[in-house]
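Homework help board

Subject: predicted structure for assignment chain

Our instructor gave us this sequence and asked us to write out the predicted structure in token form, then describe one feature. I got the tokens but I'm not sure how to describe them. Can anyone check?
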Amino acid sequence: SNDYAISPDGKEIAWVQQKDVTRLIDPSTLTLLTLKSRKTRTIDLGKMWLAAPAYSHDGTRLAVLATPDDAPSKHTRLMLVDHKSGKAERLAANWPRSVGTYGSANPVWSADDSAILFCAEDSGVQHLWHLPLNAEQPTAIVHGGHVMSFSQSKDGNTTVYTQASIDHPARLYTLDTESKKGHRRLDRLNAFLDKIPLGKWESRTVKGWQGEPIQTFVIYPPKYDAKKKYPLLHSIHGGPHAAHMDTWHYRWNVHAFAAQGYVVAAVNYHGSSGFDEKFLGSIDGDLGPRELADTEAVTD
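My token output:
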């Protein structure tokens, strides 16, 4: 569902297609199919891996995510494509964050086509961002935890979104877009978890490799006693271009580890997503030393 879109008038379908269909992360193009004639045309943005095309409401433009083909050590860009000419420009080109991770930004046009909403990481959390087309950088209108999916009413006045945290699975909220207020929880699920004791947690910054700042989550066992000593457990994320997030993880749940009596550290070492492009690509061609130094610094 992230790889295609239907035009507002229902007469055209746009989809992402790899130039070599046997290599799924190779460069791709945007293909537009006119349903009546069955004719297609291709929009090529160069050596980019594309995802999540989205038509503007008037059908004159498309937003699409584009990651350089030497990804994943480069940020994903948000591109604005003119439907008629196929010309593309990068929005908020100097914003020091990636627009989503691996195509997950879920870009949506505002009701008046003046802005684009999307999800993106920022130092261990994922916000919902609002980017006017002429703006230098977006503004977070919903702060993480971890905002993953959202939808907006036709008039643009109401936005519904999911938000998770280290302390709870995804919850459903609504936001009054006009006033930027009125965050209201809609669901009343997961009452079972209210009875489960969870340890406290915090986000900390330590000096890692060559003294550079490293963000990490530290999670404590229930009934933690600072006067006692506890074993340390590192939950080390894969990728390596991924990140520990302030979210409820269904496989590597830090509270499940902490409940066994560990202090848990979840380190966003060099190469982790959600930081600037230099940090993301710092481990290219030299895997291991920086990540190890960062993890050992947190251990200390």
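Reply (TA_rk): Your tokens look well-formed. For the description, you could write something like this. The chain has a mean pLDDT of 93. That's the kind of observation they're looking for.
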